[in-house]
Amino acid sequence: MAGHRTTPPKADKPVPASGPKRNVLGFPVVVLGASAGGIEALRALFQGLSETPNAALIVITHLPADKESHMAEVLSRFTSIPVRTVDNMTLLEPGILYTVPPGWDLAIRGGVLHLLPPNHRLDYRIIDRFLDSLVKDQGPNIICVLLSGSGTDGTLGAIHVDKAGGLVLVQDPATAIHSSMPLSALESGVTDAVLSAKALGESLPQYIAKITACMGRKEDTSTMRKVLEQVLQHIGQDMTGYRQSTIERRINKRRMLTGNTSLQSYLSEVERNPEERQMLFKSLLIGVTSFFRDTEAFELLREKVLPNIFFGHDTDGPVRIWAAGCSTGEEAYSIAILIDEYMAKSGQQRSVKIFATDIDAKAIEQARKGSYPQRVLQHLSPERLNNYFRCTQRECTVLPRLRESIVFVHHNLLQDPPFFAHGSRHLPQSAHLFHTTAARKGLGTAHQCTQPQWVPLSWLGGNPRRGNPAR
After folding, report:
1. What percent of the chain is predicted at pLDDT more than 70?
2. pTM for this structure?
3. Domains and CATH numbers, the chain
């Protein structure tokens, strides 16, 4: 194509061939993602950013691959920060604003930016893909800023940034020329601030300073336990069963957002501030989920577990399933869809009831509604969308016949008694959030309410280490 290079430009500075395997930079990385209307949003943001920050800034936009880009020149008119176009291997430095040449994807390894051949799926996910790469390389030391744009690019990446403990800032959709991109991020529930583009620029140095103050800090585990004791004492939920690394990231993020410079000072705030206790508890309820999220697990369910349920035992009785840790319902509905498809294919017609439970009462309320933004269903086949959802331009709602097969209930897997009695099948989905002892306890609860022939399925929900944690 005219104007599109087939080989990446060479780096101006020598960089090790592969870069260091692990090089956590000594400064934060700020990603500014934009699409349609993004130039105007970037102009306003840099009008608000009056100082050169101690961070690397990377602008990623949707540029036509067959046209020459003048992004670096355009940005130079908006800011005094030095602007550099990314070469094939570019070592990030603080106080520099980087742009991506058109027709290339971007990744990072060991603090070094790499240009990659473009993804030809035409899904416009360059922001998502880079944020995913950045999270794997730099952990929580990230600020993701999503500005004006059409589509939903950046939302999945923002979810990954939030899960890692980084910050997600979004332009107020009401101030964006094209609102769908910031609105999609806002609907994901992971945003830490929603401001006009200029206000984002004005507040960016403060957020950079907060990230910098947390970098490399080793926290006292005894103080962490005291923070969790406040949640148990005042809210009644014991969160000590969650993995320590997850707990530390979430508590540190709340400490950072509240402006506390030490964990001890944050503990004092949690002790005296009931609103912050609720905010902390909400942040610990990690609802990372999607329809048919773990392909391997659902394939195992379809090929091994469902035949055992429908043909292995009691072929006339009702099928009852407990889906624990259901979050906002996507995986519970996925199980219901899979079972309906299996019955249609096998000729089996059985009464099916799925009992879906979660510790998060608000997530249960959302699950009961069964309505989801179109972006979270875009990977489903047209057949599944047509058979199980009624869609508008903005959202899709589960059809009543599928919704009626599921009962959503607020329930704590580790504290509450088994949800129902002998004769059910249990497909837990939340053990990847627990440490080993808690996972064993969760499986113990499952066994209390299942028949001896219950078929254990490694946890739905994305745990990379398959197997039975109860061994």
Report:
1. 79
2. 0.70
3. 29-214 (3.40.50.180), 221-284 (no CATH), 295-448 (3.40.50.150)
